[in-house]
Amino acid sequence: MRISTLTMYNQSVSSMNRQQTEFMKIGQQIASGKRIVNISDDPQAMTQAINIGQSKAVSSQFSDARVGVRNALSQEESVLNSVNDVYSRAKTLMVQASSDTLSDADRASVASELRGLYESLIGLGNTRDGNGRYLFGGYQDDTAPFIRDVNGDVSYVGHAEVREQQVDGDRRMAVGHSGDDIFRSVHSSAGYLADAGLTNQGTLQFNGINIVDSNHPDFGLAYDIEFADNAGQMQYRVNGGAWADYNDPTTVALGGIEVELEGAPATGDTLRVARGQDNNMDIFRTFEKALAVLDNAAVTDAQKSQRVNTLRTVMREFDNGMDNVLTTRAEVGARLNELDALDTIGSNRTLAYEQALSDLVDLDYVEAASQYSVRMVGLQAAQKAFVDMKDMSLFKFL
């Protein structure tokens, strides 16, 4: 069989082109630093690399989300610290105002400072984050959560639920707390307190509340005590039950607790004894009650008793408020610690992704340099063979 000159030319050119392609491929790999330049180089490895790249991008999004959540929680923690300082100062002022050595003018001065704390607390409740959203507005974070009504009373108009952010594959974290959680709640462990209200007409005063039997079946219930003059005898009843004679002073047993009472109540006077969560939980209402008795001079014995009762109740409500803020700060701190842990896990995961991606697509420069030399020799050999072959013709001898 004879091989034509055209066939030999085609074979030589094809060999040079093949060697040239392989040589250029190695050069492109060295220039890019990647073993896989085109999907056709290794389809299976490239598919795995795409999947890993997507997982890496998701991990990066979670990392960015954690940054935003951490900033919000850090700002909240700072605000809660200021709120706690307001409560602490207000409690100190209440202790001062309770002293019998203070005059009405002195208590007016205390009321002036307390009003400043009240205004400061409203401002803290309407704090905005770095994006201009109200920190304690919950879902409704585009409008101020605390507003004053026509009577000057502060009310919460935000949402009770808060936004959540996906901070890891299986973890959604609440971004802060609502105004209800901070300013209108108490911890579940808040104990009993008494509240005589602001409408009593007698000189009834309550002192300590003693826990006698925390295992009593009625322990934890709320108790409303009413007073009435029945046939010349002052009596009281609890939660609408049977009337009992009232003596000054007296101790009333209420399902595992005892409350000490003194003074002369008037018909229609009431006293509520309940746990913090069953009593007033609105800290703004607490400020308003304190200001109401401090702004007005107490002239009669009934007014003085009302002031004593109110200040005692207010001090306990401030204590409950501080406990709630401290509990919330602890929760914020726990979330920040969790974010740190998730950052560590995320960094390790990203490092593993990068290592796996490198194993799939990154170039081994030592092997590539060796292949580069081999391909260069092969290309040169193909070129030399073509040069030698093209001179093999009988026409040179004619």
Structural class comes to alpha+beta
Unreliably modeled segments: none
- Beta-strand content estimate: 5-15%
- The total strand number stands at 12
Give structural notes.
- The protein contains 7 helices and 12 strands.
- It has helices at residues 5-32, 43-97, 104-125, 179-183, 283-295, 301-361, 365-390, and strands spanning 146-148, 154-156, 164-168, 171-174, 192-195, 205-211, 223-230, 233-238, 244-245, 250-253, 257-262, 270-275.
- The radius of gyration is 41 Å and the shape is rod-shaped.
- The chain starts with a helix and ends in an 8-residue tail after the last helix.
- It is found in: Bacterial flagellum; Secreted.
- This is Flagellar hook-associated protein 3.
- Residues 3-140 form the Flagellin N-terminal domain.
- Belongs to the bacterial flagellin family.
List keywords for this structure.
single chain, 398 residues, alpha+beta, five-stranded antiparallel sheet, 12 strands
Blueprint (SSEs and pairs):
Layout: H1 5-32, H2 43-97, H3 104-125, E1 146-148, E2 154-156, E3 164-168, E4 171-174, H4 179-183, E5 192-195, E6 205-211, E7 223-230, E8 233-238, E9 244-245, E10 250-253, E11 257-262, E12 270-275, H5 283-295, H6 301-361, H7 365-390
Antiparallel strand pairs: 1-2, 3-4, 5-12, 6-11, 7-8, 7-12, 8-9, 10-11
Helix pairs in contact: 1-7, 2-3, 2-6, 3-5, 5-6
GO cellular component, one term: extracellular region
Subcellular location: Bacterial flagellum; Secreted
Main location: other
